[in-house]
Every structure is written in C-alpha cells, then in structure tokens.
Design brief:
The structure is a homodimer of 620-residue chains.
Chain A lengths: L6 E6 L4 E6 L2 H7 L2 H12 L13 E4 L14 E6 L6 E6 L3 H7 L4 E5 L6 E6 L2 E6 L8 H12 L5 E4 L2 H4 L7 E2 L7 E2 L4 H7 L2 E7 L11 H16 L2 H9 L5 H7 L20 H7 L1 E5 L9 E6 L6 E5 L3 H7 L8 H14 L3 H16 L18 H12 L4 H5 L3 H7 L9 E2 L2 E2 L9 H9 L11 H5 L24 H17 L9 H12 L5 H21 L28 H12 L10 H6 L6 H4 L2
Parallel strand pairs in A: 1-6, 7-12
Antiparallel strand pairs in A: 1-2, 3-4, 3-6, 4-5, 7-8, 9-12, 10-11, 13-14, 14-15, 16-17
Chain lengths: 620, 620
C-alpha cells in the first residue's frame, strides 16, 4: 500500500449522476494532490471560452496525501475552479476538518460539473454519496445552513461546506464556508459563486467509522508529526499568533507600513491599536479556536455583550478581515469590524475582496467618479461602519448599487472607465492586506502569483521577517532586506514553489517545521525517497502547472504587473520606498527560465520539470 | 598569535597606583573572558567578610575574546564585583561600545581596588591610563558627566562609563551608565554603588588609532560575523524588537500573564496597550538606536514635545522600564514612564530594582505597614507618576524616606519585619518583570540564578516562545509547555550555561544565530577547535564558577527559593497556574549533580568541569 491519492467522487449535477472515479496513479505521483493535482485535472476540463459560471466549468474539492494523517493542519481542503472573478486559475484553501473528513469517508476529492435544475446539496455518508433537495436551504446564511443540515440529518458531528446567499446570487467573490471554525473558509477567487452557479448549496459529510488513510510508514509518520508540531511552536511567530491571533501582527504591520490604510493611499493608520489582536484579547475575546491537529490555534472566538454590534459567541476576525474593514476603510471600532466580518461569513463573501471593493467605491466617490446617482443615494464615506453594513446586505442580495459592487473592483473600474492603475487588483483579484511597498518581495509575489494578487502563493513578507525560520531557509528561501529589489526573485520563486507543494500536501503556511521534516512526512506517507532537490523540482512543477493553466486562459507576461496605486511612495513605515518591479520581474523570468516577452516557460524548463507534454499547447 | 585575553589595567585607588597586569593565559583559556574570567579572579580577591562598599571589594570591567571584533554586539562590557545589594555575586552587562573601545585602547579589562581619597575619574588614552580629579563632576548626572568630560578632554568621540548622584550616594541599586545609547547601562546588582564607594566617578576612553584585536583567523571570523548578523535577523523576535523595540513585547506579555502588574498581585494590566512599543512608535518615537555592529537596533530615541513630561530627543524606555514604572505601578502614561526611566538613567539607578522597591513600598502602605509617619508625609498610592518622580529624587539623594528606599526591597522588608514571602526578591535582588507564573522556566531560573532573580542568566521565557530559535535547540535548550514543571530543569540549566558563555564572549542574548556559528566565531578568534560538547562543558564551568563564588559568600540550597508573592495563583493569561518549584529544583540539582541538601556541586562534577582546585574550599 502506498499513500497516493486515487479515489474520487465525480458528480454531474445536470443529470444527477454520481460515479466513483479512480485516478491514474501516475498523475498523483507527478502532481501530489491538492491544488497541484486539481490544476492538472482542470487543465484538461476547461478552456479559455469556458464560462466560469456556466455548467461547463468544473469545481474540484481536493485533499492531499497528508490529509487526515496525524500531521498538524492536515484537515485542510483546496477548492479549485476557473475563477468567475478573474477568468483564470482559481483556488481557495480551507482550514478546519473537512478535508480529513472527506478522506475518512473514503474519498480523496470531489469533481463537480454541470448545473442542477434546482438547488441541491450533496450528502456523503461513508462510501456513498447522494444529491438531495435543498429548497429548504434556499437563501439561508451559512451557519444557519449547517444548523438546518444537522437537524435534517440528525447528527451533530456533520462536517459541512456550504455557500450563503452571496454564493447563490453569484457574487463574484462569494466564498465557501466550513462553519467549524473561523479560519475554515475557502475564501478567495469566487469559488462560492461557482458552487452557486451549479445550484449546489452544500456538501455534508457524516461518518460512522473512519476509513484508514493510506500511509506507507505509519509509525514513522506519527513520530515525524509530533516533531513537526513541536518545531512549529518553536517559533516566535507561531507563539504570537497563538497568543494574540493573526491580528496580533497589526501593530507590527502598522509600524512597518504593511497595514494598507484608506485603500492603499496612506502609509500608516494612527488608530491601529484599536483594531489589534491585543485589543481583541482585552475586550471581546472569549477563547481560541483551531484547525485539525494544529497546535497554534490562531482562531479567535469573540462575544460582544451589548451595543449596536452585540454578538453571542462567534468566530472573531483574523488579520485580513481586521485590515479590510478596519484600516482600509478607516474604521477603528473593533466590535464593528468583528460584526462586519461575521456578516461576510454568514452571507458567504470573501472579506478581502469585499472590503477592498467597498474601499475602492469610497475612493471613487471621494473623487467624484461615483455620485449618489449610482449609489442609490448613499453617501460613501470613510469611517462609516453603518454604511458598510448596509453595503454588505446590498451586495449579498445584489440589490441596487450592491449589484455593481458584487462584480468586484476590476469590473467596477471598467464600468466607470477608471484607469487600471487606480484599482488595487492584479489579474482581477483584489490585493490582500500586505502593502507591497513595505516588503518588496510581496510586490513581485502579487505581480506573478497564479491566482492574481495573493499573499499565500508566497508569503514572502513572513520570510522577510523571519517567521518562516532557518529550518526552511536551506531550501533557498531567504530573508533579505525588505526594501531590496535586486536579488529578490529567486527567493520569491522558491517560496512560491514550496507553497505550491504545501497547498498540494496539504499544509497550512503558518506551520513551518524544517523542510527536512516536511520531506520526511511526504516520504513516510508515500513510501518515496524524495530529497531536497526532488522536492524543489516537484514544487516548481506544481507552480508551473498553474502558469500553464493561466497561459491556456490567455494570460501573458503583460498581466504580471501591479497598479500604480500600490506603488506610489507613502509616508510611514515604508519610508517612501517603492519596489523596482521591472527589475524583479526580469530576474524572476530569468530564474524561472520563462520567456520575458510572453511569460511562457521555455521548452527546456518544461522538459526539466517533466511537463513536456504541454509544449505543443503553449509553443504552437 | 591567538585571541586569548591577557592585558589588564590594575588600579589601586587608595594609593593611586596604576599597573599593567598580564594574565596567566591558562586562566583565559579556562574561563574565556567576561563574567567567567571576572568571577574566577574575584573568587580569589574577596570573601564572605568583604564589605561590598569597603575599599577591599574589587570592581572589574571585563571584555571578552570577541569584544571589538566584527561580531555583532561585540562592543559590550561586563562589570562584576561583590554586590552591595545582595552580598553575593554581582554582575551587570552593558551594551553600546565601551568594551570595544577599551580593547581598541589596548586593554582587555580593568581591575579596580581600594578607595580614592577624593572623587576621581580614570582617563584612558591609547596604552596609558591616568587618575584625574573629578571634583567638578561631583553630584553630576550621568549624561551631564559625559558632556563635561567631553569638554574637558576636548573630544566628541570619548567613550564614558560613569555613575550619577545615586552611585555617589551608595544607593544599593545604583548602576553605571554608558551614555552612548539607552541600552548601554550596567544596570543590576548595584555596581554603581561599588564604583561610588571607591570614589570613582567615571572612566573615559579616547583613542587615536585602534589597537588590533587578536584574532587567529580574521577572514574566517569576518565571514562568520556576517552570517551571524544575518541569522540573527532571520528571526521574527529580532524583527519585532527592531520594529517595536523590546517594549513591543508588552502586548504579548500581557496576554500571557507575563507582565507583572501592581507589584505581582494582578495577572493582567488592562491598560497595557498604553505603554506598549506600538504606542511608543505612534506617539513619542523619533528613531531607533543600537549597539556596536548590532543589526537589530532595539533601542528607541524619543521626544516629548509638550506637557508635564516634555523631553528633548533622549533615550526611550525598554521593556523592563516600561513594566517597572508602568504595569507594576499601574501607571498608564507612557510619557510619564519615559520621563521616569530617563530620570533613573540620569541619576544612575537600575530601573528594575528601583521600580520594584517603590512598588513594594506602595504595597506596604496599602496594607498599613507603612504610614505617612515613615514616608515623610507622602501618601503612597498606585497610578501616581508625580509621587514616583518625587521618590526618585529622594532615593538618588538619600533624602528622608528615600534613604530607606535606597537600600532596596529586602532591607525595607527586614526593617518593617515583613515576611520574606511578601517581597519580590531572590537572594536580595528584585525580581525583573517577567512573571514566573507565566513561564515556569523563569520560576526555576529566578530561584537558582547566580546573581539573584535574573532574566538574563537564562532568558528561558524567550526559549519557551521560540525566540531563541531552532539553531540553538541542538544545544539541548528546549521550548516546552510554559506551564510544565516536570522536565524543565535540564533546559534551564543548559540555557544558563550558554548564557554564561555569552556573557564571557561577550554577546547580547537578543542575538541568537545557530550555536554552530557562535562556536565557529570563538574558534576563529582563539584558534581553538571546540565542538558542541566542549562548548557545553565550558558553559557549565563558567556557570558553576559563579556558584562557587556564591558558596564562598555563604549561599546554600535554601537560598534557591521564590517568595510566595510571585507564586500565588492569579487570574489572567497565567490561568491560575503556579509552578512546582520543589520538583524543578530537585530535577535541577540532579541534572547539575549538585548536592540537594547544601546546593554544592559534587566533587565529581567539579572534576568533570576541571574545577577540582575548588574541592577543598567547598567540601571541607
């Protein structure tokens, strides 16, 4: 027995067929699992003309070879599809336990195509799966959906991933929520809209007895898993995330000029402390929460006892949400931020794209490009949580001006003929809340990342400030001067490759045991003998596969850019520094051996990475 | 040429003799430098009956083999003597550049005995030294002293260590200030009082041309030094200290219950943010400052533009000062804290012992043990920066009630017959501002540490939260559950040994490159071939030497204890946990092979560590 992935549920919603599909083991050997394997599969299933919200798009829920093992954070799942927000590669990583439960039920992944005539949900119980009518769930918020399904299926231990009203209404940045824990959301690139377009409200898993996860050397893996958990906590960053949550980084971010403020136009936020993890800890925090076997437990559970934003015990906001609805919109009331973030979770909307789109709208209103004529009479102003609350309702229901905002920033800019340099998106995806002027590695990351502006395809800001740690640096990822452009590309590329592996295994990028240990874990699972060189090659293959997908969707080198709004020099911790993106891109293409004119990997590169089969597709 | 230390200035102040003394190279080989070498020398020079403030006590300024080399933080100096505060081993580590300058002037250390008939200062210029009249400096504050000496000696590049009025008045916790940078203070155990008792106001170094520092393999050391600097910054903690200063830890400390509040009687401080590094950064910070070749630059320079605590550009408070005058005294005004901290620096008083003694006095006043009769009519209350300002003046001048406070907490407790369990000292030294209930490793550290309660002899709290990093863990120092008592002793002991080496080399404990690199640096300097085992043995020898010194001073196992006031369970991040100190002590003595009844190292241990010559002293 080896640990390769191979057993999939294939579901055609159009005709309600459910089949068990076995995967060619060579594919799993080559593309590992998670986003790597999903990307390889999707490459064959969709093309440039596929409507992301049409029945021909394919939505994949994918686990990895470590999923469900003893390894920390190995409960994650990746959701992949052609993105309706960007029309390119879409992926969203979800923490919690759903991935582990899917494998415990006997499946390594779910491949979903077609469109159900009416709203349905997928019920998975042990080895079997069934599509069920979801008309009772229509319009329901995510947490409510989980509660209804628990009642309907008469079990508390149900693991659910579902969409909210935003997904049903095809909000372009709708997400898929796994209501187990706050961190458990497949947030970015509009995977919830794809699910909505298929009339699939939820997937629910029940298990009576856990199926064994294939592991070549279970005892060795168990030992290794312990070491990995320990090594992860041997890191000041992990301890800080545990103690103060990811929002514990707010103060440091602000001091470094990394906390985007007023839609990326200010270099610092004087009220940062009000929205920090420390303030959360001292005001609304009740307890921590965490994902499958994770020792960090960066999740927060909060309660707001009284006032306008009264909340019972509920998931609290993490860093991105705090920045999105906080500094980005100049809102300093953490209770309001927690409330707005939770509203997004309930409606099923990505807090990053949502807050950024709202910020962009306020920015346009301030410039006079939007007026009350377009906004249904609303005055769009900064520091107005009540306005944001209204807008969230309008977006989720696509009501009035909300219908425009539901399309995301890029389409809003296009509609009002705003220069692409004024809208904080890359390849159509809203830039997350780490300022590329504070860490030049992030400027390059955003410009080239496979799913548009992304802080997870390479979390180079964390490498720069030492959170990734010496055990990972032997890979070649380096901590370098944050304001240095020269020589940054290789480090960014190596981290991209490593994270492509991470999202294929699947591991959370907050867990950073020495690379050796990650390699061991994979070898003990698969029975392989990969070494550092082999792992680097696999990582590069996985990352390159996503590039191939994007090339097929029409992406070229000229899409690897940043808008000027995130490059203008600012006062603050960034000290008016701006990255030299052209230089970094040049070095990046050179390191990757990608043709700088077209952004295509050279034939030699593809051969080196055992991706020669794609040469005819891209070089003809 | 090898890099052993060997050339000392020996000064007898009683008869004003200054001699150059060469040291037996075997001593330097065995005890390295810094506190290790100083302790070995002092062991022969003082005994149980030596009055720490009498002419027979000896004050040693000691550099280490790395001092003045390219290695980061290698500008430090250690000041050692029998402590007037504790009557045992006294040491105080000072950052900045003084150590490097002393070696550049041609000396590895200064050994000072006797007492000058009138106030003098020592002027070192190149290879020569001279005692000069200091009557003009009498009563002058530290920064002023430096300014006067610069004028008198007509040079701006003077490096000075001096005492303020508190040292002259023999305040038991007077410190020695090196006014180059905020972090540059030899703070603890009253070394300033010893200097004052000798009528030595200052030491001033001028150099025209730097003497070469002996290094066996300079090119290799240079390369290694670069790697060490880089590795130090590959650490999230270093980055945090750079960005927010050491007070950047305040929020995390508070969340963990590590921020002593209201003289150790509360488990958290609701106003912590007001005194945090982030608040400093956003309010009074002007720029960072740093020590010799240090890439971290954790020092802060602040300015307060108006109000009661108006200050021109001056050193700002670090973590211990912020806690001492902040949470400890329930003062939430960071400007007041900065002002009070600076006052201590000017007067030349250790902010830890000073704030703690004041906290203890307020605690006693609240209990009715002290009344306005004893306090010159002062109402001692919490949250009163004006009161503290008054007391600082009274202490430094030993005026009225200030004369009592100038004796430190232990003597204050004795005078008013307060149980030793109510006063936060160990072996007479005030407990610094890391709560032993938050990190059980610190409970053991405080109980056994060579200079009384100390967070630097082993910074085990930083090991526990991963700031020391995986590169150091191969040594055996472990990050373990902070609330675990069992199995903690070995890790604490190993860290004590490593830090004993650090304070002998001399390196700052905020710099934590992999241990290999530190070993290399020592080998490249000395021309030795030490490996990890050898280094561990040397570290254990250095730490054990301090124990031998304390045994000679009368310390026994029963002094290795903690007062109950820091063991009472508290609400807050400590979650009412309390360490099992007896268990940890038992394991500690067992690991160290110290006799648990007497606290003496066994003969076998002393033989193993090449300290057999001391067997007759302690086992007869």
């Amino acid at each position: 027995m080896n640990g390769y992935m191979g057993k999939f549920l294939r579901i055609n919603l159009t005709d309600s067929t459910i089949t068990n599909q076995a995967l060619d083991p060579k594919l799993a050997e080559k593309f590992v699992g998670g986003t790597g394997l999903a990307c390889r599969l999707l490459y064959d299933l969709v093309d440039r003309n596929t409507d992301p919200l049409g029945p021909k798009n394919v939505l994949i829920f994918m686990t990895g070879p470590l999923t469900g093992t003893n390894v920390l954070t190995a409960g994650r799942i990746e959701v992949c599809s052609k993105s309706p927000l960007t029309n390119i590669w879409g992926e969203a990583s979800c923490g919690g336990n759903f991935g582990a439960w899917l494998r415990f039920a006997g499946f390594d992944g779910i491949i979903i195509e077609g469109r159900a005539p009416n709203l349905v949900y997928l019920s998975i119980k042990e080895d079997s799966a069934e599509l069920k009518d979801a008309s009772l769930l229509k319009g329901k918020e995510t947490f409510e959906t989980q509660a209804i399904l628990q009642r309907e299926l008469n079990t508390d231990s149900l693991k659910v991933m579902c969409i909210g009203p935003a997904g049903e209404r095809l909000v372009k940045y709708a997400c898929i929520v796994h209501p187990d824990a706050r961190t458990a959301i497949a947030g970015r690139t509009g995977m919830g809209a794809v699910m909505g377009s298929k009339n699939l409200k939820a997937i629910a898993i029940q298990i009576e007895e856990k199926k064994a996860i294939p592991v070549a050397y279970p005892d060795k893996l168990k030992e290794q898993a312990k070491e990995m958990a320990k090594a992860t906590m041997d890191n000041f960053g992990s301890q800080m995330f545990q103690t103060l949550g990811t929002a514990g980084y707010v103060d440091m971010a602000n001091a470094m000029g990394d906390l985007p403020t007023k839609y990326f136009t200010l270099g610092e936020y004087p009220d940062a402390y009000n929205i920090s993890g420390a303030t959360m800890q001292e005001t609304i925090l009740v307890k921590n929460s965490g994902c499958y076997r994770c020792p960090i437990r960066c999740g927060r559970e909060v309660e707001i006892k009284e006032g306008k934003y009264k909340l019972s015990l509920n998931p609290g906001p993490e860093y991105e949400t705090v920045a999105s609805f906080g500094s980005n919109l100049l809102i300093k009331d953490l209770k309001a931020i927690a409330y707005l973030g939770l509203l997004c979770d309930k409606f099923g909307m990505d807090t990053i794209s949502c807050g950024s789109t709202i910020g962009f709208a306020i920015y346009l209103f301030e410039k006079g490009i939007l007026t009350t004529t377009e906004t249904d009479g609303l005055e769009l102003t900064w520091s107005d949580p009540e306005l944001v609350e209204k807008l969230l309702h309008m977006i989720a229901s696509r009501q009035g001006f909300g219908d425009l905002l539901a399309e995301g920033s890029k389409r809003l800019a296009e509609k009002f003929k705003v220069s692409p340099d004024e809208v904080a998106v890359v390849k159509g995806l809203e830039i997350p809340f780490h300022d590329p002027r504070a860490y030049f590695g992030m400027a390059l990351t955003y410009a080239v990342s496979a799913r548009g502006a992304c802080h997870c395809q390479a979390d180079h800001y964390l490498a720069t400030i030492g959170n990734i740690g010496p055990g990972v640096y032997p890979l070649g990822v380096e901590s370098t001067d944050r304001f240095q452009s020269e020589g940054k590309a290789k480090s960014v590329a190596l981290l991209e490759d490593y994270r492509a592996l991470y999202s294929s295994l699947i591991l959370c990028l907050f867990t950073n045991p020495p690379t050796d240990q990650v390699i061991n874990a994979l070898n003990y699972t698969l029975g392989t003998t990969y070494d550092m060189a082999a792992i680097k090659r696999i990582g590069a293959r996985l990352r390159t596969m996503k590039r191939l997908f994007n090339l097929k969707m029409g992406i070229t080198a000229k899409d690897d850019r940043l808008p000027q709004i995130v490059l203008n020099p600012l006062e603050g911790g960034q000290e008016k520094h701006t990255p030299n993106l052209p230089l970094m891109l040049q070095e990046y293409y050179a390191y990757r051996k990608w043709d700088p004119a077209t952004g295509k990997p050279t034939k030699e590169t593809l051969e080196e990475l055992d991706l020669a089969e794609f040469i005819p597709d891209i070089w003809n």
